[in-house]
Design goal:
This protein has ten helices and 17 strands. Helix content is 31%, strand content 31%. α1 packs across α2 (69-86) and α7 (244-255) packs across α8. It holds the Pfam family TsaD.
């Protein structure tokens, strides 16, 4: 079973592809900043290293926390999007379980308890304790350092994670503990283990949820009722074939059951490799993909191939921003006019394009087919 493991929850951005005991690819980029920008290129690098298409994956596993609010959301958003596009299950694995699992595998001496501990800053630690046989003694918790030292299991134990030294010092100072040792494994979750832990679990029936424990410093409002000033900033950046899987997922979410034919990951990758193609990806709230526009230019003419926004985030100006930036990019490349086709039943899109200066110049009867087999006309528009 080929599984993709993803982690961006702590201080690394990492991706692995495993097939049973075989590691087909493992790519790790150190540092906890810019994971939203780094993850898709790393995913493509891992895919090439493994020599497979994403469509060959049987499932995806991503860390769900505890850890960085932004980092948790980055991995989960990507995993969910790919799972939706590929119609494969997505597992959520905690960072503490992954760290503890790594420490247990690396410990030569049997019979030791294991404590996964992550520095949460502000003199606090994320902590989860495991018995000598590897069973979790409690759920992950957020505690101040002194309280964390007070819940350590009795007897010798191995500490693993970025908060290990802080906890060891506190335990020695407050309780005189001299039976603790530091694990030599990485303080960041191993994406190979993330995937392998998932492989040993039943197929999930629901998408995983983030395990934040600590509320985010800046709470993100819901799309409904959010004001222009309260919504998190929208970031629009060009993307290449490495983002094909995410674009396919967004397109499927936006158009499943509607008239527009769905773009697959493979077809998007092929199109993006063609001269003149341009994709702009909109992200929000720590790098979560929420929409994209796909355009193509030939000589002085440009074409909008598709524009997709997550349904729950429509009517918030995302499509308008994507359209504005996309048209500006095409104009900057020398395009004098731009064409597009839109289903005659897509009233909202037709209104958006009309407001941007597009006018109807033709019609293709029965061009689109909807999920029920019904035919819909395509309206040809030009600007």
């Amino acid at each position: 079973m080929k599984l993709l493991g993803i982690d961006t929850a702590l201080n690394a951005c990492s991706v692995a592809i495993v097939d049973g005991n075989a590691v087909l690819a493992c790519v790790v980029s150190a540092g906890g900043k810019g994971n939203a920008e780094r993850l898709l290129p790393l995913l493509e690098q891992a895919r090439l290293q493994a020599g497979i298409e994403l469509a060959q994956l049987d499932g995806i596993a991503a860390t769900i926390g505890p850890g960085s609010f932004t980092g948790i959301r980055t991995a989960l958003a990507t995993a969910r999007a790919l799972g939706l596009a590929l119609k494969i299950p997505v597992w959520g694995i905690t960072t503490t379980e992954t760290l503890a699992h790594a420490a247990i595998l690396a410990t030569a001496q049997p019979g030791l308890a294991t404590v996964a501990v992550i520095d949460a800053k502000r003199d606090e630690l994320y902590i989860q304790c495991y018995s000598a046989d590897g069973a979790a003694l409690a759920e992950p918790q957020l505690l101040n350092i002194a309280d964390a030292a007070g819940i350590l299991p009795p007897g010798p134990a191995v500490l693993v994670g970025s908060g290990s030294e802080l906890l060891m010092h506190a335990a020695r100072t407050l309780s005189g503990r001299d039976d603790l040792r530091l694990s030599s494994v990485s303080p960041d979750p191993d994406p190979v283990l993330v995937a392998r832990i998932a492989a040993g679990r039943p197929r999930p029936t629901v998408s995983p949820s983030p395990l934040y424990i600590r509320p985010p410093d800046a709470k993100l409002p819901s799309a409904i009722g959010a004001t222009a000033t309260s919504r998190p900033p929208l970031n629009i950046q060009p993307c290449g074939s490495e983002a094909a899987g995410v674009l396919a997922a967004l397109h499927a979410e936006a158009f499943t059951g509607q008239s527009e034919e769905l773009w697959t990951e493979k077809s998007l990758r092929e199109l993006l490799a063609m001269p003149g193609a341009l994709a702009l990806l909109a992200t929000q709230g720590g790098g979560q993909p929420i929409g994209f526009i796909l355009l193509r230019q030939a000589a002085d003419e440009a074409e909008i191939i598709t524009l997709a926004v997550q349904p729950q985030l429509r009517r918030l100006g995302v499509a308008r921003r994507l359209l504005t930036v996309g048209l500006a990019k095409m104009t900057g490349r020398g395009a004098q006019q731009c064409f597009l086709e839109v289903a005659d039943t897509n009233v909202a899109a037709r209104g958006l394009y009309a407001a941007a200066g597009f006018v109807e110049v033709g019609r293709r009867p029965g061009y689109y087919r909807d999920a029920t087999g019904g035919q819909r006309d395509a309206i040809l528009m030009r600007r």
